[in-house]
Design goal:
Strand content: 25-35%
Distance between the termini: 11 Å
Number of domains: 3
CATH class of the largest domain: Alpha Beta
Oligomer: single chain
Number of helices: 6
Shape: elongated
CATH superfamily of the largest domain: Pseudouridine synthase I, catalytic domain, N-terminal subdomain
């Protein structure tokens, strides 16, 4: 993560205010004088005025591969299965980032860091999400163009994609916002039925070959990449 964010987590001030002590050369990382652009990983040694500092709160960041059939919810009045049923109890305090509907699958983040969640999900940040989608019938070029230019789902509500690319039996759809059931509603509006929808990338972090229902911690490199968005 960026050095100013790390120092803020150490309780030394806001991210903006700690930039002053970095500029004055008071901060070292692994014994070297740090700069504003310095990135800090899990194994780095950070010191201010020669004294070691450590983030007061170590947040948890998980990448989870959601299977279809599970709700993104802490509980359900109809006793349906939720994503928390697949996590160890010690992670039930975490909140999910980037809701997927019950029948969709793929990449979902879990974290204890509310500020990080906001940076990824607020529409003003426009963080890119990529989905692999399969429909019952092949998507025509005209259909794709309509999704790229915008489809009015209801009066005054227009959904559109950032990009659409063919990929074997699927096509890859990129979005800058995560509106509720956005892809399904767009395709339904132009007469297509979604058979499979999987999120494969979020903010440049890829799902990879993680099995469904399993999770792993985000790496320092992945967290650094997301912090730069």
């Amino acid at each position: 993560m960026r050095l100013n964010r790390y120092l803020a987590l150490c309780g030394l001030g806001s991210r903006r205010s700690v930039e002053g002590i970095i500029r004055f050369g008071r901060v070292t990382v692994n014994g070297e004088i740090a700069e504003l652009s310095t990135e800090v990983g899990d194994s780095d040694r950070v010191a201010v005025d020669g004294k070691p500092v450590k983030a007061a709160e170590q947040h948890t960041y998980l990448l989870f591969n959601k299977p279809p059939g599970y709700l993104c919810s802490r509980g359900d009045t109809h006793d349906r299965e939720t994503v928390y049923d697949l996590l160890p109890e010690k992670f039930h305090r975490l909140h999910y980032v980037g809701r997927l509907d019950r029948y969709s699958r793929g990449l979902l983040f879990f974290t204890s860091d509310g500020e990080w969640t906001l940076s990824l999900t607020h529409p003003r940040h426009g963080v890119l999400r990529v989905y692999a989608v399969r429909t019952r019938h092949e998507l025509s070029r005209e259909d794709a163009d309509e999704m790229l230019h915008g489809i009015e789902i209801e009066p005054g509500v227009v959904f559109k994609c950032e990009s659409i690319e063919p990929d074997d039996d699927y096509f890859l759809v990129s979005l800058r916002e995560g509106k509720k059931r956005e892809i399904r509603r767009m395709l339904q509006a132009i007469g297509h039925h979604v058979e499979d929808l999987q999120r494969i990338e979020f903010g440049g972090v890829k799902l990879g070959d993680l099995p469904e229902g399993r999770f792993r911690e985000l790496t320092a490199d992945e967290l650094n990449r997301l912090a730069k968005l």
